[in-house]
## 1
Amino acid sequence: MSTATQAAIDNTFDDPGRRAPLITGGQDYTSVTDMVCSLAERRQPPLAWYVAFGISSTLAAMFFGLIGYLIVTGIGVWGNNAPVFWAFDIVNFVFWVGIGHAGTLISAILFLFRQNWRTSINRFAEAMTIFAVTCAAIFPGIHVGRVWFAYWLAPYPAQHLEMWPNFRSPLLWDVFAVNTYASISALFWYMGMIPDLATLRDRATTKWRQLAFGIAALGWNGSARHWMRYETAYMLLAALATPLVLSVHSVVSFDFAVSQVPGWHTTIFPPYFVAGAVFGGFAMVILLIVPARQWFGLKHLITLRHLENMNKILLATGTIVGSAYAIEFFIAWYGGNAYERFAFINRALGPYAWSYWTMIACNLGASQFLWLKKVRTTPWMMLIVAAAVTVGMWFERFVIIVTSLSRDFLPSSWGFYKPTAIDILMFIGSFGLFFTMFLLFVRYLPMVAMAEVKSMMPHGHEEEH
Amino acid sequence: MAEQMSNQSEPETKLVGLLAEFRSPEKLVAAAEQVREEGYRRIDAFTPFPVHGLDEALAIRPTVLPWVVLGAGVSGAVAALAGQWWTNTIDYPFVVSGKPLFSLPANIPVTFEVIILFAGFTAFFGMLVLNGLPRFVQPVFRSQRFRRATADRFFLLVEAADARFSVENTRQLLSAVGAAQVEELHDDASPIRLPSWIGWTLVTLAILALLPPLWIARARVVQSDQPRWHTFIDMDYQPKAKPQTVSTLFADGRADRLPVAGTVARGQLRDDVRLYQGIDPDAQTPQPEPSNPEPPHPEPSNPSEPKPEAAKPADAAASEPAVAWVTEIPLPVTDPMMRRGQQQYNIYCAACHGLAGEGDGLVARRAQELQQGTWLPPTSLHSEPVRLQPVGQLFHTISHGVRKMPPYAAQISVPDRWAIVLYIRALQRTQNAKPEDVPSETWKAMQP
């Protein structure tokens, strides 16, 4: 059994002669198992966990309290008005859904591309997806006003309504897309965890742990036949989840693109939104994983090479998003539509110009620092970039939604939007919910996909991975 | 250490097979190949992660799962398309801005998501079903060493049911192919007994779970004279009288009440008769003409229905009743008022009466072209009868109309009407001016 040292080994070199190791520190199957399982098996996490959990659960409780206040009192507690009917509620929804997409990309798309480095981070990222989608789904649920009728969105034979939903509406496509995405992501995450839950079951020492992990592992025994079907199902789910994640954020973008509002009615939205979602999602993954690998001693599993690869994706998607900004601007001028032109000039110079330039600086400006290898491989630097990108992506949705709504076709209809305290506190509260679920995850569940990491550790087998 | 499972505590056990432990995946794959070559068929391997080469070594046949998933995806597509088509076009045709009730571009997103949903769920649950999971009781779990099968050890099981199985020979073979450890695996052959309370609890829960649907089903067919349960009262019950309902508070039984007699709305008092009606309340009622057999005109404060003038515009009616019209405009006459009058006249009056008041407006000329028998030409404002009319009468004509001219009180405010009257006087002066009317400087400039 080799010891896991905390010294970071630089495996970011790109020498075609010798392949950079993905797992450093001379790990073997036993040490990998111990490294990951010990985190879920220790009696008490460090004090910092309790402090963080206390803060996040307080914010989550505040979130639910405010939701109750909203349902009892009405949407008027928010700043939504005419003409800005969608504001923080939909901005937060798109923000959280976008964050969720990075997890599915890491799980499904990188799997199809045979990127073995994903195995160290995919469990973490998939968990982030599940929690982000949970936070996301709350906002459209509560923004309808009469939340107790939200089930009317479902296509069930309604006796007293005597009608069906309108399946041609992007708002209903959203219902199907987000619910499908949440279910399939949850299935994918759980399925990936079954072998690792079996590992924890077999190492469990207390009766409660044996029972809990035993039920959760469904009796997994690692049989070769089972693995064969499991791998088939995994490949199928990955192949299904790939178009799913592309479609979900496209459908979310259709909420805007299918409308007539200047600044919204543009065909670039689906690819632009998907690229932006991956961009924002990877930033959140980096924000979470850099401290996690430090505090949980996972530097040999989540190495600098993993971080650098994620930063490269961040750079690529950030550049795509930046070029989408430029194309939008160009088309607004080239198309000659006076309303579209005004919409973009208004974004840059109107009353919300501060949000627009924040977005540009954070998204395009911060991400370009990643051209420098130093920034890509230094954890504290990439944290700053990732934080800036997260802020910038929130502002991107704010700019798109609020500025376009506040000034559209008819100047007599223009209006200014100001968020209320409830808007802002609910946004902060959603982070509380996210981090509460995440802290519970890191405490009780295997944070790294041990079985997958082991499967791609080199063991001198004649078959190339 | 070689640990033999002690079987003295269980009354009945049967030998399931021999479980061999290996330290590396390569050894396991090589061993599996060799064991298979020896003719063993009932073998299985257990690894913490999928080991490549093991499927071939064990000759595991590919699974039918992908086909099942494909079928599920296809049925998802059919279900989604059929469902959308039937609900939005047949059962409740949902007309939205005349868009097609069913169009593939609009109906694809939901179809796509449902395909993924069906296929994904089938992949997961199909995998579990084909693997026989969940299965919490398995012979291999009885082995203590087997616990490392999910961590860092690799196992090969040769089942006792295999034709070539024999405890000694198979054990020798396994050791020969590199097993670090070989143990006998026994299973509890006595029938499984669940504690009885589990069964009773499940039955009770099932019965309790049936109650709400039964209650709902009963409520759907039973009639009740109780009011519905109204959870969110909102503002549904308001203690106020709605229009056209019965009220027991009033003698006529109506909730609708008329205003108290003499009630005047704000801004509607209009007691300045000069301004609002063009009638002088202090003047003596002019005597009617002797040839007029009709009685004198009633009180000037009630001139709501003046007798109509004669049909022919040039005919000064002899039987016209006399009304004390004001002869001076009751507002300060200023230049802006004149310009306002011009503007308003051009908007409202010129269409028929013409820009100069001669009765040659566009409407009148068009009507002449059409030569319809029902058209009454607009009066020329320069004709003698109109020139002789006091300003109050002009005001009255604008407000209430005359003959075929409709009333304009609704369109033109009272000050604007007086401005129009002022302008009409100016127009009339243009066609009937005297030299004294020209300003002296202009008159001088006009001299030859």
## 2
Amino acid sequence: MRYAVDRGVKVLLFISALASTFVVFLILIFILQEGLPAFREIGLGDFVTGSVWRPGQEQFGILAMIVGSVLVTVGAIILGVPLAVGAAIFLAEVAPPWVRDIVRPAVELLAGIPSVVYGLFGMVVLVPLVRRIPAPANTGFGLLSASIVLAVMVLPTITNIAEDAIRAVPREYKEGSLALGTTHWQTIVGVIIPAARSGIIAAIILGIGRALGETMAMIMVIGNSIIVPRSLGDNPLTIVLSQARTLTGNIAVEIAYATGLHESAIFATGVMLFVLIVFVNSLARLLMRGRAQ
Amino acid sequence: MSKEKVTVHPRVSFGLEAHRADRKALALREQANIACRHLSQKVAFGLLWLTGLVAVAVLVLVVAYVVLQGWKVVRVDFPDFLLTPPRGGLSAEGGISTTIVTTFYLVLLTIGIATPLGVGAAVYLVEYAGEMRGRSGLISRLVGVVRFGVELLAGVPSIIFGLFGYALFVSAMHLGFSLLSAALAGACLVLPVIIRASEEALCAVPRCYREGSLALGTTQWQTVWKVVLPAALPGIITGIVLSVGRVVSETAVFYVTLGGSHHLPTSLFSGGRTMALHLYYLAMDTRAFDKAMGTGAVLVVTIVLINLAINSVSRRLTAGLKGG
């Protein structure tokens, strides 16, 4: 009897393990299958490089959204990474224990704050501030506001993982370096950071993955105009004030009322996003695995 | 020094003088070098303190702003804000009671679906898959696929889960915009969280527990059920509470599967809106930023409470391990 139960349970557990994996493939298959008509009718090349998205006229090109997603992510990385990595080094090496004990849980907590809360803060505080920058047709909604919001959102992710990577550097490395008479700072720059480099880069790449996948906060502050971002006036720097739309935003905003080819094109957008994210995450995992060896 | 004070030939003595001068200069340079290195360390550490503090300040600023602004709104008609339903439509009037209840329902349903699957998968991977290794090529390969799938799933952005949920549950299975569709999509989202946390917790159970139990003649399942799972329980619970946090704060998935009705859901097949979703509608459709702030404050407080729960559970976990 006990053995029968034992065997039964084993099969049951195996099924649940399989079901969990099945979900991944189900997601892949479903999105691919729904997106296939769009790829077939529009063609992969035209779909990716077309800059016009007019569902009413059956024109579907997602170049604007790809550029929007990439630019806003680059902006967030430029703004967020120095702060995040600096904070990680600070927490792992410099901060006295009592500061660390307060800051670490706080940063972990902030990683769990809903993205709509950050989006709301962006709408209420950042957008009016950005709107003050004198430029023609500056609405405040756009790449700059979105990048700042995103930078704040990926900060806890990058800091947490980068700090773990720095902490994982063997103690002997640090002691060996200090024993040679270097200062703590020289040890950090010359030994600890190089040793933790792949982990820190992995943290940044995971941050990029999060940034690319962020949806609601982006819809709230980026303006959602379907244009390839361009400078607003003569000053090329005003490109950061340009409105844009992300791949994620394109999906969320239009899926509920899309039908036919339009719906399929939305799923095709999802396929592109999926491919992009899997590529980015595999890169991070490769680096993490390199560190483990 | 005294050793060098022997009578020497003048030319040799001159050489010694030069040597001493050299050493003195060297020592001076050394000192300057050390001073310089310490100075650069001070500057660098100052900058690190600055980045650390700025990073924390920025994050605290955002959260504190929302909580304080929101608290002002909540306080005005406390506790009615929490106890009355939203008026709906384009009016921002009313409270958030139905959204709190919907959030609660959705959390229960999602966790109820995801926990058995996730914990089951983790138990299989840790307790059963290990012994398979080397015995059967097919199953060990399958286990590799399962692990790869879980890792892949963890990195997929939530809107993809939403898209999937919309295509499969809302459209293909005709469940419509409903609690059930949203919970199924949400379960896919939190599955990797639960699997990973449970796996870690199970791996942390000392080997001797299992051996001791098996030596008493129990079957493997009896060992898992009576010995391993209880020992791993705090870690598993941490994973579940973490998932509760994910569901409470998730918006994108439910935006495309839950429908957004402001009424109280009456069955599994009726739509609704969670607090996070309500915040989004208030901010984007109604532009009622004050009410949105109020909802945001309630949301943040909920997340803080969930985090406190996680901390207390994991503290008990470490205490338990130390005691055992």
